[in-house]
Design brief:
Length: 166
């Protein structure tokens, strides 16, 4: 007789939603899209919870889903912008973005947004989500060496953009 695993999705939502939204904001550049990405990740977990082998793995599943959903959002944006025949419009900052990040971090955030996607993902997971190299490698589906090299290259680019603040 197989035993069905129960995942406390409401508990995960209460404990991790805000941190996942903050992580997603750094990946997709706006809070509305970030919230959508996170809510979609929780909905996916709810639909596929029988595929998660142990409840402790659910947060890793959520992180990976948030990253994949963020990539999808960025791809869709890029496609839409490419096909627009009108002048390219810049997304306005959401009115409440200041609540998420202190003014002192705005320059750093702007620089992080200019990094290539993989470097931005690695640095976001390392310094915002506080994941280990092994957890980042698992979440992104890359080797630990790739995590190290992307982190190093990303930090070098940030240092160049921001000056020697590291």
């Amino acid at each position: 007789m197989t035993q069905s695993l129960t995942i406390d999705i409401a508990g995960l939502y209460a404990a991790h939603r805000l941190k996942l939204v903050r992580m997603a904001v750094l990946l997709v550049d706006d809070i509305g899209s970030a919230e959508d990405v996170v809510h979609d990740a929780f909905a996916t977990l709810h639909q596929r919870q029988s595929q998660v082998r142990e409840p402790a793995a659910a947060i890793g599943y959520l992180r990976m889903t948030v990253i994949n959903n963020a990539r999808s959002v960025l791809r869709k944006r890029q496609t839409a912008r490419r096909h627009l025949s009108l002048a390219r419009l810049q997304d306005a900052e959401p009115a409440d973005s200041e609540l998420m990040l202190a003014a002192a971090h705005q320059e750093v955030l702007a620089a992080v947004r200019q990094l290539p996607p993989r470097q931005r993902e690695v640095l976001t997971l390392r310094y915002w989500a506080d994941l280990s190299e092994a957890e980042i490698a698992e979440a992104l589906g890359i080797s630990r060496g790739a995590v190290k090299s992307n982190a190093s290259r990303g930090m070098d680019k940030l240092e160049t953009m921001l000056g020697d603040a590291r």
